[in-house]
Structures are given as structure tokens and as C-alpha cells.
Amino acid sequence: MMKTFLLAVASLQLCTAYKILVYSPGISNSHLMFNGRIADLLINAGHDMLIYKPELMARANKNGSDVARILTVDVGLKEKWAKAFEKLDYKLSVETCDGKLFFFSLRADLTFTYAAQLKRKDIMDVLRAEKFDLAISETMEFCSFGLFHHLNIPSNIVLSPGPLMDFMADAFGFPAAASHVPS
Predict the structure, then answer these.
(1) How would you write 20-42 as a 3-class SS string?
(2) How far apart are CA 21 and CA 62, in angstroms?
(3) Which of 77, 135, 134, 127 is closest to 106 using CA atoms?
(4) For residues 117 and 36, what is the distance between their CA atoms, to the nearest angstrom?
(5) pTM score, whole prediction
(6) pLDDT, tens digit (0-9, with 9 covering 90-100), for 42-64
(7) How far is 78 from 166, CA to CA, in rounded Å?
(8) Cα 177 to Cα 88: distance, rounded to the nearest angstrom
């Protein structure tokens, strides 16, 4: 009898559902779809998910999820992001560039985006009240991790829908062996 009771109590830990925030900025439909599919898989595994989608690009209009709760917020930067991508598209068509140009050219816009979100006290209060156990974000930008800290989310997971670029690996402390990472 006691063994059965202990086994039942121990199995409860295996069934724990977590409250998880997925930070999915509206920059690209492909990234929104990737993040939404991750959320759907975790919901199917029994977790409580919320996708937080700050709207940044008008063309990024997918939800990405079939079942997750989604908090879509216009942070007032769509025009700024449209101009940033116009400038980037021009640079990519005229100049030779590597992957670093893309991310470094958007660094200032990401900083403005983070600041605009923090100014939305109403949204920050809603997110903080959720008391998330875990947050998920991509390696596309690092502002989300400051946001997670601001919201007192104790743990986070980093996703990469593509190959991990060398400068991102450096930022996360992953070694890049010269034998297979030539840059």
C-alpha cells in the first residue's frame, strides 16, 4: 500500500504542467510559424502556453499556432521597421554582405523595440501576472532575455530555427571549432 502511494506521488511530478511564454516578434511569417508550432507541441504535451507577439512588420501576419493563446501587441514601430527593412533590402541588393550585417544593422531597431515594449506598463503587468515558469525565444535577437528578466521569469530556452551562426554561438558561449566553423 505504501509503495503504491509513493509511486502515485512520484508520478505527479512527471505530470507537472508548466506555464510557458513564447516570445515571437512579428518580423517574419516563417519565424512566427516556427514558434507557433513549438507552442502547439508543448500544449499537446499538457503545458499552458502564451505566445507574446509584438507586431513589428505588417507582412508578418500569421499566428503560427492553431491552439495557443496569443497576445498580439502593436508597439507602435511598424513604420520604423518597414524603413529598416527597406534600407537592409537595398544593402543586400547592392553590397556584398555576410550574416553579421543583417543582425548588426537591426541592433538599434531591436533596442527601440525593447524600450517600446517596456514602456507598455499595461502589457508588462499582464505578462507579469501570468507568473510564467519558463520563457522561450529565438537567437534572432537578445532583447527578449532582458524582457524575461524584467518579468521575473526564472528560466528560459533559446531556439534556433536555422543553423547557429558563429557570432551567436560566441554570445551564448558555445565553442566554435575551427575544423568545421571556418569563419
Answers:
(1) EEEECCECCHHHHHHHHHHHHHH
(2) 18
(3) 77
(4) 21
(5) 0.77
(6) 999 999 999 999 888 777 788 78
(7) 29
(8) 30
